[in-house]
Design goal:
CATH superfamily of the largest domain: Mur-like, catalytic domain
CATH architecture of the largest domain: 3-Layer(aba) Sandwich
Largest sheet: 9 strands, mixed
CATH class of the largest domain: Alpha Beta
Structural class: alpha/beta
Radius of gyration: 23 Å
Number of domains: 3
Strand order of the largest sheet: 7-8-6-9-10-11-12-13-14
């Protein structure tokens, strides 16, 4: 646990008592603060009270009279589309609003660091797609070279639940826009921006607000190294803002769209090969085509970002290459779950938006695609543009018929995962790939994308 520093003795309110909220309450208590908790769900309040935490209805008048700070869980809106009433009350009362990420960066460094040979370092990753794979790959590289590494944030453990890092320790954080948007303190040593595509637009009042939330990770804390995916205009803009000159190697530009040029530091993937260039010359290369855990161009982008992060903390190229080959990939992200009768079955349930689904489609050929769910804003144009490799789509979800009407491909309305898997497996031929790439959220039928992927896996395995 990371005890909270800088608020000792203060009463701190915690709104939302899921994983991050309860972890915040525990870390506040460990740091000598007095957490007072609230959640609209009475079962969540009971769990907090069972751990000894006081619950206070933060909706009542005067609830913030002696509160020093409000800690808000990431799922709770603080500004758009409308502030949660408790958050609005705190802001009206002049109470600072923060989250567990802000508490983490505020509290991580201790006096013990002065006795370390090498200070711990934090590598924080944000962006629309590829964050989890990039974080897991960085963590895997660190473990492969014997570095003490912990994975936290949206992947692994909650940020305040991790152990205090030791001499030379590495903390790898996956941070969503919900987290970077609100955190009062953001001070990573290395910050990574993977890419930007439309997502969570209602929460950020459009693309400008969404990009601004991501940009805070770089603008607020001033990382020693910034690794920026430059395949979108926003990434190129961000890299230009952070660099003092074209050759400023504090910024490492990353691309999976083609060769990068210039005098600076860059890592790019082209035709399946990763190349590192610095000061106008190539210094390393890796053939990614045979790296089983990183299929497709979108994973090559993840590989470039992870490679750059590892290089930024001094890991040698050949060591990184060895680690790539031992990386098994993550569940629900282009995860090969079975192969039978010449047909491959791939679970990419994490492809919850059109851009991530399009990248999954580009990684395979002869696809029988299972898709659908709770559709996000923006339509399906991007995924339709990548439909050339799709033989047929099998559509699930409560609004499956409406979803199917928007597809520029042969499609069948199935409704349920069971029906979709059965139909796809019946029609699949040797050389085909049955791919779950929904391009939609899961919440119309499942509690999470993990549950959806697990159902796909179970349905396939039951029929093999």
């Amino acid at each position: 646990m990371i005890p909270v520093r800088g608020l000792k003795g203060a009463r701190v309110a915690v709104l939302g008592l899921g994983r991050s909220g309860l972890a915040s309450a525990r870390a506040l208590h460990a740091g000598g603060e007095q957490p007072v908790c609230w959640d609209d769900n009475p079962d969540a309040r009971t769990r907090a009270e069972d751990e000894g935490f006081a619950c206070l209805d933060l909706r009542k008048s005067g609830a913030f009279d002696d509160i020093a700070r409000l800690i808000v869980s990431p799922g709770i809106p603080h500004l758009y589309p409308n502030p949660n009433p408790v958050v609005a009350a705190a802001m009206t009362a002049g109470v600072p609003v923060d989250n567990d990420i802000g508490l983490f960066f505020q509290s991580l460094a201790t006096d013990a660091w002065g006795r370390f040979d090498t200070a711990p370092r934090v590598i924080a990753v944000t962006g629309s797609n590829g964050k989890s794979t990039t974080c897991a790959l960085i963590h895997h590289i660190m473990e492969s070279v014997g570095r003490d590494s912990q994975l936290a944030g949206n992947i692994g453990r909650g940020v305040l639940d991790i152990d205090p890092p030791g001499d030379g320790g590495i903390v790898v954080l996956e941070l969503s826009s919900y987290q970077t948007d609100l955190a009062r303190s953001l001070t990573p040593d290395v910050a990574v921006f993977t890419n930007l595509t439309p997502d969570h637009l209602d929460r950020h009042a459009g693309m400008g607000g969404y990009f601004a939330a991501k940009r805070r990770l770089f603008a607020e804390g001033g990382p020693d190294r910034a690794i920026i995916g430059v395949d979108e205009p926003e990434g190129r803009f961000l890299a230009g803002q952070l660099a003092e000159a074209p050759g400023d190697d504090r910024v490492i530009r990353v691309s999976a769209a083609g060769k990068l040029s210039g005098p600076g530091w860059s890592v790019f993937a082209r035709k399946g090969h990763l190349a590192e260039w610095r000061k106008g010359r190539q210094v390393a290369s890796i053939d990614l085509r045979d790296v089983a855990g990183l299929p497709g161009a979108h994973n090559h982008q993840n590989a470039c970002a992870a490679y750059a992060a590892a290089r930024a903390v001094g890991i040698a190229p050949r060591v990184i290459e060895d680690a790539f080959h031992s990386f098994a990939g993550l569940p629900h992200r282009s995860q090969r779950i079975a192969e039978a009768g010449g047909v491959i079955y791939v679970n990419d349930s994490k492809a919850t938006n059109v851009d991530s689904a399009a990248k999954a489609l580009a990684a395979f050929h002869n696809i029988r695609r299972i898709c659908g769910g709770l559709q996000k804003d923006g339509g399906l144009d991007a995924v339709n543009a990548a439909a050339g490799s799709v033989r047929k789509a099998y559509v699930i979800g409560r609004e499956a018929a409406q979803f199917a009407l928007q597809l520029d491909m042969d499609s069948q309305v199935c409704g349920t995962m069971e029906a979709a898997v059965a139909a796809a497996m019946k029609e699949a031929e040797p050389g085909d790939v049955v791919l779950l790439a929904p391009a939609a959220a899961s919440f119309d039928q499942y509690n999470s994308f993990e549950a959806r992927g697990a159902d796909f896996t179970a349905q396939v395995q039951a029929r093999l």
